[in-house]
Amino acid sequence: MSAEPVPTVADSGETDTNGALDRLANDLEAVSSALTRLESGTYWSDEISGEPIDDSVLAADPTARRNP
Q1: DSSP annotation of 52
Q2: CA pair distance 64, 56, nearest whole angstrom
Q3: Which of 56 and 17 is assigned the larger pLDDT?
């Protein structure tokens, strides 16, 4: 099993290092939040309405917190 290469700032042509780091920090925060919701059993629920989040929404964005 070979691991896929992880894109880097240089690969994306990104010159705004702080912007790239901010986006990475936001992504990590979203993943951490999703894992916390998974542990508490609320992962599949909209944070505002409490209604189930559509499977298609979570398939497209596993860190989604709300239905669109």
Answers
A1: B
A2: 11
A3: 56
